[in-house]
Amino acid sequence: MGVGLPPLEFTECLSDSPFFRENLHQHEKELEITSQQIKKLIKEVKDLLSAAKQLSQAQRSFSKSLQSFTFECIGGTQTDDERVISRSLSEFGKLISSIEDERDRMLKSAYDQVVAPLENFRKKHIGDVKSGKKKFDKQTAKFCQSQERYLNLTAKKQEAVLQEADASVDMAERHFYNASMEYVCLIQEVQERKKFEFVETLLSFMFGWLTFYHQGHEVAKDFRPYMKDLQYKLQVTRSNFEENSKKLRNRLHEMQKQSLDEPIRNSRGRKEGYLYLLEKKAFGMTCTKHWCTYNKETKEFTMLPYNQLTSKNIKEQPEVMVLSSCVRRMSDSIEKRFCFDLQVDSRPGITYTFQAVSETDRKSWLDIMDGKEPTYTTPGITKLQKQDCQVLDEIGIQFVKKCIEELENRGLEDVG
Description:
Layout: H1 10-15, H2 18-50, H3 55-68, H4 80-98, H5 110-151, H6 159-211, H7 216-257, E1 270-281, E2 284-295, E3 300-305, E4 319-328, E5 339-344, E6 352-355, H8 359-368, H9 383-409
Helix pairs in contact: 2-3, 2-5, 3-4, 4-6, 4-7, 5-6, 6-7
């Protein structure tokens, strides 16, 4: 058995980090493998029913499929019951091998006992996950596109337009988080259901198998204690599933009801989230989405280029820098909203300009980074007043020089 699939938490739906996406891909891959393995088992059962003359060969093939069948459980460790359940298919395969020569009345009612339930499990439960993924991917695209349009609005837009944009992106964000949490919930449920309902189907088939074999009856007698124990473990697992499913759904509803104003809070001196790096190029300004983290204690700031719509796998390591200063960007100095500047120790003199996803998000970044307000030359003086002062200073200097020259021409020694 492997180390198991990584657990999925509803809180990860709010951050939607690259690592969360990577974990989702692992679950999706494992479910696809399970679906293909179930299809293989269904085919094997049908072969047993339709190829009576080759029944012995089909039994051996089915036995081999059972012994090689694997499925992962969530978490790094397994309980004793989970280990018994996960190994049960292999035990079934060994039993089939021991009675391979007994063909009489084999699999007379196998279709109703095995094929239909397995097809139902694959099409309904795994199919529900695939439908959830389509909804999740659709909401991801809608949210990211809505966010892109929202962040491209300039501060010069009318307040009514900006307020409408705020409401629109908030709605898209809520739909995205709901779809994400629902998708995680579906994955959790099918992984748990697989541990009892799928094996239960094959357990029922095994009971029927032994019933139809006279010679297999003695084998079944020896094997029955294990099957009884497995049946009990499956019943316990089913009961636990129903209780845990209620808790999971309650947790889902609680998370969905929570305010999305600050979905990602600064926790224990650490913050993470998406930022857009703004860079001036020869052909204009580029805006690249990054997953960023900051540790207040070490002042380490990391950024990893990542976009949920285009990036499937993490292909590079995050860039790690030590922060030296953080300053809020003045609104009239840049067209983009929610911007702030960073300077790092490793690249003195170079300024990184980032765009947060909202004003609340920018305040959160500035707060944990001890961000400062931009420096104004003289508070309350406009640009035009600053220019006027500079002109007056130059006129005054020229006037003083002219007076000194006149006094020197008159022969005065002290011009002080």
